[in-house]
Amino acid sequence: MFLAILLQAASAASIAKVGAALGAAIAVVGAAFGIGRIGSTALESIARQPEAAGDIRSGMILSAALIEGVAMFAIVVCFLVLFV
User: Fold this and answer.
1) 60 in Cβ contact with 42 (< 8 Å)
2) Does a structural domain hold residue 74?
3) Are 73 and 24 in contact (CB under 8 A)?
4) Residue 9 — pLDDT band, cuts 50, 70, 90?
5) What is the band of 62 on the pLDDT scale with cuts at 50, 70, 90?
6) Contact 69, 54 (CB under 8 A)
7) What per-residue confidence (pLDDT) applies to 25?
8) Mean pLDDT in residue range 51-66
9) In this structure, is residue 13 part of a structural domain?
10) Residue 57 belongs to what domain range?
11) d(CA 3, CA 37)
């Protein structure tokens, strides 16, 4: 009986590890997609209005930094699930 409980706990822990790894992967892919979209849209906007390049560039950098922060937070949470 006790061995069955231990085996169930071990399988649940491995499922949690797989879920944490998938969560980290999804967070990284989502952040990469978001930053790529920001970059392409910013370049397109600068090409249409070159005089607004400074404002567009600063907005792009701020948005990319916020997306990176959210992605790093998601990865840290997934690693906490993985190792704790």
Assistant:
1) yes
2) yes
3) no
4) low
5) very high
6) no
7) 87
8) 95
9) no
10) 23-83
11) 51
Q: What is the pLDDT of residues 21-52, one digit of tens each?
A: 888 889 999 999 999 999 999 999 999 999 99
Give the tokens for residue 22: 């998938």
Secondary structure (3-state) at 49: coil
**Angle at the Cα of 82 (from 80 to 84), degrees rounded to 5?**
55
Residue 12 domain-assigned (yes or no): no
Whether residue 14 is contained in a domain is answered as: no
Domain of residue 63, CATH code: 1.20.20.10
* 3 state DSSP class of 1: coil
CA dist 38 and 61 (Å) reads: 9
| pLDDT at residue 5, rounded to an integer | 64
**Cβ partners under 8 Å of residue 24, min gap 6:** 74, 75, 78, 79, 82
**Closest C-alpha to 34, from 58, 67, 62:** 67
State the pLDDT at residue 2.
65
Q: What is the total count of domains within the chain?
A: 1
